[in-house]
Specification:
Layout lengths: L8 H4 L25 H5 L8 E3 L3 E2 L1 E7 L5 H14 L2 E2 L3 E2 L5 E5 L4 H12 L8 E4 L9 H11 L5 E5 L14 H19 L2 E7 L16 H6 L2 E7 L6 E7 L5 E8 L4 E4 L4 H5 L2 H12 L5 H7 L5 H13 L3 E3 L5 E3 L1 H5 L42
Parallel strand pairs: 3-9, 3-10, 6-7, 6-8, 8-9
Antiparallel strand pairs: 1-2, 4-5, 10-11, 11-12, 12-13, 14-15
Helix pairs in contact: 3-4, 5-6, 10-11
């Protein structure tokens, strides 16, 4: 008996009823080729990856992790608003606008309205952002719900799931913890890869810290292993409120110093290397002086910094050399370390290799207005 042909992913994941807008159901795409000879593959031309936030959030699955109350939801909602309308992510990075689906699974409509009011600061809310406070787990209908929304918004740029634990679903019987974590992220990755969008999974970190930020992701290595990129938001000392550590398959590994403004709920990218903003004030002023005057001795630095005690300058320079923040030659002269000397401001938009031109909001008419939250079987009446 011949096996029944498996439907294409876009057809298999179509399940959410919506208003009839006259849109044509896309035809079943041809079977995708998955094997080539080496010369065939090298002769192929591939489009550049699509970026939701150039240099930071590329198409594919990204884990956005951080400790509780560090501001992950403020960050993800702010990015959703920015990408939906086309603007400046983190008040610094130009993004192309396009529809965004934001699943705020730990929030209420009232809380979302309050937070968006702060973030928008009087600006009109983008019609391109769809928000829902409930959705079934991915294995129990969530994948179908998201796929149906993406089918109706082929120019969508990002899907945010906050938090991922609400949608990962139950593990397969007998599966190891690693396999269960890998499969859970794999469901989201299937959507991201098929539709070419950035899917952001908001997740937690372990209580115990680590020098390796990837080791702080809560769960097994299967989570970060299945994801295309991992972003860990860690609290910092000094001028920065947090440092965003980024690594991934299509994303250059980097660290970005960020500051959070509670009055507006917005995250802002700080200029320069993250290390400039995470060290204490004394170290920061010494580092700035040495960058401007490489080869300076402690007495020269102390003379230029009359508010800092000379003994403090001497001890701090020695400690900074031990920490790799400065280098010292045999004559007792200090220089910026190699990483600092070669680092520049985080021109993250150049990492994508693609132009980013913020479009006018009217070029992205947005969503169709059907209720994704109703799929969970609950009735969200708040705010109606």
């Amino acid at each position: 008996m011949s096996a029944t042909p498996r439907p294409a992913l876009s057809e298999h994941l179509r399940a959410v009823p919506a208003e009839d807008d006259g849109a044509q159901v896309p035809a079943t795409p041809p079977r995708i080729k998955t094997a080539w000879t080496a010369d065939e593959l090298m002769g192929m031309d591939f489009p550049e990856p699509r970026w939701a936030v150039p240099g930071i959030l590329c198409e594919g699955v990204s884990l956005l992790c951080g400790p509780p109350k560090v501001g992950k939801s403020w960050m993800s909602l702010g990015l959703g608003l920015c990408v939906a309308s086309g603007g400046l992510a983190f008040d610094s990075i130009p993004v192309d606008g396009g529809p965004v689906l934001y699943l705020a699974l730990e929030d209420t409509a009232r809380r979302l309205q309050s937070r968006m009011g702060k973030l928008l600061a009087g600006r009109p809310a983008p019609h391109g952002l769809t928000l829902a406070t409930s959705c079934p787990p991915l294995p129990q209908g969530g994948s179908e719900a998201i796929a149906s929304w993406l089918d109706r918004h082929p120019d969508a740029r990002m899907v945010v799931i906050d938090v991922f634990a609400k949608m990962r679903g139950n593990s397969a019987p007998g599966a190891s913890a690693y396999d269960a974590d890998y499969a859970a992220v794999g469901r989201a990755k299937a959507l991201a890869d098929h539709y070419g969008v950035a899917v952001v999974l908001v997740h937690h970190v372990r209580k115990a810290g680590s020098d390796d930020f990837l080791a702080e992701v809560s769960g097994t290595n299967g989570l970060a292993g299945a994801a295309d990129a991992t972003l860990v938001l860690k609290r910092a000392r000094g001028q920065a409120d947090s440092v965003l550590h980024v690594t991934g398959r299509d994303v250059d590994e980097a660290e970005y110093a960020l500051t959070f403004t509670p009055e507006s709920g917005a995250w802002h990218l700080l200029d320069g290397p993250a290390s400039d903003h995470t060290m204490g004030d004394t170290r920061a002023v010494i580092l700035r002086h040495v960058r401007t005057n490489p080869g300076a001795k402690p007495k020269d630095i102390a003379a230029a910094l009359p508010d800092v005690d000379p003994d403090t300058v001497r001890r701090t320079c020695s400690r900074m050399a031990d920490a790799g923040q400065l280098t010292k030659d045999a004559g007792g002269r200090y220089y910026p370390d190699t990483a600092t000397r070669t680092a520049t401001g985080p021109e993250v938009s150049e990492l994508s290799g693609c132009p980013v031109t913020p479009p006018d909001l009217r070029n992205h008419p947005g969503q169709l207005g059907y209720d994704l939250s109703g799929l969970s079987g609950t009735d969200e009446s708040e705010g109606k």
